[in-house]
Amino acid sequence: MMMMMDSTTEASGSSLESLMSSFNARITHLQELVIARNMFPASSMADLSAVDAAVKAMELQVQAIKDRLREETQAIPKTKKLISASLKQQKKLQNMSLHAPSQLPDRVTVSDSNTSRCLSPEFSVQDPGLEALNLKVNEEPPPLPKEKKGRSSPPMWHVTASELDSLSSYMRGRLTLEKVNAAINDMASYAESNAQLIIAPKKKLAENLWEKALEIRDIATMEGVKGKHFFLEADIKGPSLKLDNTGKAILTVLRHLGRINETRVGHHRIIILQKPN
Q1: Is the CB of residue 159 less than 8 Å from the CB of residue 184?
Q2: Matching InterPro entries, A to Z (predicted)?
């Protein structure tokens, strides 16, 4: 019996100690809260509000910068297209200035004194000369004269058998007279196509040919090319002349025999037809 009472007393003492420990911990926590409240007085709330407002304003500025940057990025492709269109227009205007007539014709004019004389009674008699003059004045002004842009057909100076035989064997290789002269026919055809592009009006050209026509016209005005029949290396597409080993050998032979001359304009290799010496 005594042992049971001792056990009950020990359990009660342990529970009381646990409760007291819990109360002490709670009191300590409340004390810490009081200390924290005293460390941050109410005046600091205004400072925190100001900091919060400044941060929000900076966020708005950053967002505005991002929006502006996005707009500028989206406008880059449009700007590139505008620049490209401006360059094309500039090229067209330069080409128009190159092919414009050098001098405009004089329009027929009649002075006021001559006109008043024609209207006066003493000149009311029908005069054939005056009638012709009046008709000429009343007519529409004559159209502007067109510059002569016609060109002769590209020459085809074929290679003779003796010329081909005069070449060294390593240069001649397996080339035949038929292959070489067929290539000359192809080159004349290329040059004729370019000559047509030079004189053709825009309305008669397909849209995909207009850019090439402008390029060919610019090349045709260059020193060393002007007034001559020519074609681009990029024009070589057969049927007889191709940019293979045989085609390159043919070009070497024709260059040696004085049938062609070469130059560069920009990134283009220009082949000019010329009369052999």
Answers
A1: yes
A2: SKA1, SKA1_MBD_sf
